[in-house]
Amino acid sequence: MLKWLTDTFGKARLMRWFMTFYPPYLGAGVRVQHISDDFRDIQVSMGLSWYNRNYVGTQFGGSLYSMVDPFYMLMLMENLGRQFIVWDKAADIDFIAPGKGPVFARFSIDETLLDEIRRQTANGEKYLPQLQVDIHDGAGALVARVQKTLYVRLKPQARQA
Predict the structure, then answer these.
(1) pLDDT (tens digit per residue) in 97-145
(2) Which SUPFAM superfamilies has this protein been placed in (predicted)?
(3) Is residue 93 a contact partner of residue 145, using CB atoms and an 8 Å limit?
(4) Helix 2-9 and helix 11-21: axis angle, to 10°?
């Protein structure tokens, strides 16, 4: 059934649909605007409403972080393949300015990053790439900067091959 769905609609389109209706994102008002077919470019947005507004009327920090939480991990998993373990290891968020309206983030990875990960993990070692995503408001002003550290390693059976 899943193969038929991915063959019919495309994996990126199904992932976008799933993330749109994923309860934590639905509740926070997070919308996945775009996922490229190769999972190398993702765009997300989040409006400001009563359920993600903090005490002073701006974007709740937890919602800002959850908006960007899983995407680098998903992108690397899709691009590196099943022979790799990919986990989120750590994150740091720097709040720059209050989010007083809709906010947006764009994630991009390229072949250079993927090649570096493959090179660093070729001998079975773990690699901890650090990736950054910026969150902007509708006018393009920087609202927050998130630094993600991921854990990437070949699975044991791939290390033995």
Answers:
(1) 999 999 999 999 999 999 999 999 999 999 999 999 999 999 999 999 9
(2) Thioesterase/thiol ester dehydrase-isomerase (SSF54637)
(3) yes
(4) 110
